[in-house]
Amino acid sequence: MAISVAIETPLQDDVRSLVNDLNDHLLPLSPIEFQFKMTVEQMAGDDTTVLVARDETGHAVGCGALKAHGDGVGEVKRMFTRPTVRGQRVGSALLDAITNLAKDKGITRLVLETGTGPGFAAAYRLYERSGFTRCGVVLDYPDSEYSAFYEKRLALTAAQ
């Protein structure tokens, strides 16, 4: 399957649908107070860049976002691929695009928070295959049994 990944606004019906499906997917996996979601309106903020994966017919099949926090830190947010395309490297393509965007923006440390438990095993594999390693609590997240934290150090390019 041919996939394209591009920066897009989250304020589109098909991206809203992806985010709604992500929220529905996460709902049974951990207590709601430990689900740190961004709305599509928040994702449209100046500090966040949304990437959308589309199949060869133009259907949105995945999304992810890069939120800039300053001081060289960027956060991977709202990673999701539709169940119909899982296992086809859509998540890897999104994460690679987010990583490249972070490098372009001068970010030297990417971090992320995800849930814990069997429902997150595929996410762990994706992050670890992409060079992320487990770390302690990041940003202002609470330290809880419901969160796992990852980081990836990025080298600055010669142009920076």
Topology:
Elements: E1 4-7, H1 13-26, H2 40-43, E2 48-54, E3 60-70, E4 73-81, H3 90-104, E5 109-115, H4 121-129, E6 133-135, E7 147-153
Parallel strand pairs: 4-5
Antiparallel strand pairs: 1-2, 2-3, 3-4, 5-7, 6-7
Key words describing this protein structure:
7-stranded mixed β-sheet, 4 helices, 160 residues, 30% strand, alpha+beta, single chain
Q: What does the model show?
A:
This protein is of the alpha+beta class. The protein has four helices and seven strands; from the N terminus they run βααβββαβαββ. The protein has helices at residues 13-26, 40-43, 90-104, 121-129; strands spanning 4-7, 48-54, 60-70, 73-81, 109-115, 133-135, 147-153. It has a seven-stranded mixed sheet, with helices on both faces. Strand 3 and strand 4 (73-81) form a beta hairpin. The chain is globular and about 40 Å long.
Quick rundown:
By secondary structure, the protein is of the alpha+beta class. Helix content is about 25%, strand content about 30%.
Average pLDDT, to the nearest integer?
A: 93
Count of helical stretches: 4
Order of helices and strands: EHHEEEHEHEE
Major β-sheet annotation: 7 strands, mixed
Please compute the radius of gyration using only Cα atoms.
15 Å
Question: How does the overall form come out from the CA principal axes?
Answer: globular
Strand ordering within the main sheet: 1-2-3-4-5-7-6
SS strand fraction: 25-35%
Bin the helical content: 25-40%
Stretches where pLDDT falls below 50 for ≥5 residues?
Answer: none
Tell me the distance between the termini.
35 Å
Question: What is the SS-derived class?
Answer: alpha+beta
Count of beta strands: 7
